[in-house]
Known about the structure:
Helix content: 10-25%
Number of strands: 12
CATH topology of the largest domain: Thiol Ester Dehydrase, Chain A
Order of helices and strands: HEEHEEEEHHEEHEEEE
Amino acid sequence: MTENEDPSPQHLVERLLALLNVQDHGGDRFEGARKIGGVGRVFGGQVIGQALASAERTVADDRPVHSLHAYFLRGGSEDHGIDFKVERDLDGGSFSNRRVIASQLGKPVLNMIASFHKREDGFHHAEPMPHVAGPDDLASETDLRRQYIDKVPEARRRFMLEPRPIELRPLEPRHWMGGGPREPVAHTWFRAVARLPDDPRIHRAVLAYASDMTLLGTSTLPHDLSWSKGNMMGVSLDHALWFHDDFRADEWLLYACDSPWAGRARGFNRGRIYTQDGKLIADVAQEGLIRPITPKPDGA
């Protein structure tokens, strides 16, 4: 790959797997690598994915994670790796519970609790998947970003065009395409851009990583706010994820998001994740800071 050549899909996925493959330092202490070429603030999904990967290293394979609840305490820096300390709070007959503290330079950036459950048979019901178009005839967000890049302030264009390991195919227009306020609902098909290993823990970590995409922006849609327009400050405050069933993160998944409330400079968002054949495999909830600001002129 030359300096100006985009990495291949396989290379992008290899980078993501390296990011989520935390290093075990013993004593339930782990280290997450920094993103290659990363600049500025660490993506929240990266911290969640690395924290989950750390916690799963301390739990038996027959107890998959069923839920995690995380609070973002301060923004992480792309200049450094992230340290993770796992506390083994419970190993019961059916459930295990772990607390994870993520820190940089001795300061916590995220606290997370994760619960793990042995597989059991039980009653079942699930909310059906929304009736939306499938992914095959939709444009990828990468192509759409290139098409609409002139609408994005110049200072943000490099980030917008950066190749990503997760392919997104939105059903509704993105906020950076123009247009005014609209209903706080967003549907997006997503998957890893290349095949992943068969280890279910890897697929759960990748889903945790991707679950922070598109979610917070849902609460900004009725107010015509967007980080790409420079008229808001947006920061994830907390993030909850429930894993319901088996899935592959390298096959198409539908992320159906809505925002039932925003106020007091915060926006609340919900998401349901379905396989292409309609199986509900995860639910997500997140509250974030959506503080309006005055846009700066290009170059400021």
